[in-house]
Amino acid sequence: MELASAIEEIRTLLTEVIVDFQNHKNVNNLCEQVRDDLFVIVESFLVPAIEKILCDPELLAELKIGAGKMALRFNGYRPSSIRLLTGVSLSIRSPYFSKVVSNRRPGPKSKKRQKGTGRHFGLSYLGFIGRCSTLITSSVVQAALLCPSFEIARRPLKNHAINLNVKTIRQITMNLANEVMPLRGSVSLCDTDRVNGKTILVCIDGGRLRERRPKRGRKQKGQKRQGYHADWKEPIQFVIQVINSDGTTSKKHLPLYDATMGDIDSAFELLERYLKELDATAANRVVFCCDGARSYWKRTGPLAKRVGISSHYEVIDYTHAKQNLHEIVDKLPKRVSTKEKIKIVEHWKSLLWDGKFVDLKKEIVKQITYPKRRKEALDKFKSYFLKNQHRMQYSQFSDLKISTGSGCVESAIRRVINLRMKSPGIFWKSETSESMLFLRSQLLSGRWNILTNNIFRQNRLLCACH
């Protein structure tokens, strides 16, 4: 469609809808009609323009060089389909590249070319992700991430003139995940993420969701499906924040969220990747703040050494420390009144804050008189407080403007995991949950536009000759 023809069609459309508006006098119907019809006209105008660029010999020459570096060669222009604004599948011709076939004679055991090994390089160069424009991909995936399910995400998308079925919404979401997951750790970073001379706060904690695993063995007679296990799994979430010299969170630096379904070692490998990308060695200091789980603390020191961090602090979250202190408080004799117990708790908290563990132990021995309860209390004190006392110097940490709380990761777990992935009756396949954890982390930490811009640049570099 030529520009003059498109303009004339838009003029006719506006004239007709304004005449209708004078009859129904409903501005909502007016806007909806203009939007839907206008998108159709615009898409019909854009497709020939996009196809013209794709068939440009100069672009093809550039794509051939980029494809050659990936052992792909031009295999002609082939029909394909794209989605631009409304999600409607639009036909288009695009340069197609496939793997270079060896000249040697194929043997009897040679494999056939696998399906999906070719690529429409030109579409990736122009900014398409899985044959969808980044605009519609971003809108669809954000709806899928924020709504309770893919089915519910379909409804608000339809209200915004994007009419897709559940299967397509899920496919578009997974297409984006397949693009960004190999770049995890760097794809959501930007030039402003500089930590030179800053304090980095790293908080780690675990969430909960149900993982779906298919049952092994034969399907039982009379059953339509194989069935699956839905055991609880603990994804590990971490948050990286930049802290100002006065101890407040920097507003100039977006936080970094991520979570993984992998084990604790996989989580720390992922965290190491982020710290290296941030160049944590240039930071003034790095603070690790978690609960008292030994699985975390026996890995933070080696992690700091591998990354090359010269100065790091380990802090047990003060709230978790108080919760463990209350477990000792529960061992107090029942004759102690509520008023007296409140005074004891406040005194013990002050001793904990000041790092006076010798005095705290004396108080426990003094106040808990029953031998059995005293032994249980002292065992708890020894295993949790004495072993971690260097991580509980809260008064000193406060003077150094070091955070003593990990509330940011608790908030991230609620927002990233609980509000979407821990809903009743939802069970996740491992691959899907890993992708959703990563994508939701980037969206809710405010790094979505950074991610989409970076994936465009990455695809442009892969496809181009430079």
Description of the molecule:
There is one protein chain. By secondary structure, the protein is α+β, with helices and mostly antiparallel strands. It folds into 4 domains: 1-54; 57-100 and 117-188 and 450-466, no CATH class; 199-217 and 226-317 and 405-446, Nucleotidyltransferase, domain 5, CATH 3.30.420; 319-391, no CATH class. It is 52% helix and 15% strand. It is built from 17 helices and 11 strands. The protein has helices spanning 3-24, 27-54, 57-68, 121-126, 134-146, 150-159, 166-180, 264-277, 294-307, 318-329, 338-354, 357-367, 371-386, 394-399, 407-421, 430-444, 448-463, and strands spanning 72-82, 90-99, 128-129, 132-133, 199-206, 209-214, 228-233, 236-243, 256-260, 285-290, 312-316. The strands form 4 sheets. Strands 9-8-5-10-11 form a 5-stranded mixed β-sheet, with helices on both faces. Helix 1 runs antiparallel to helix 2 (27-54) and helix 6 (150-159) crosses helix 7. The longest helix has 28 residues, at 27-54. The chain is elongated and about 90 Å long.
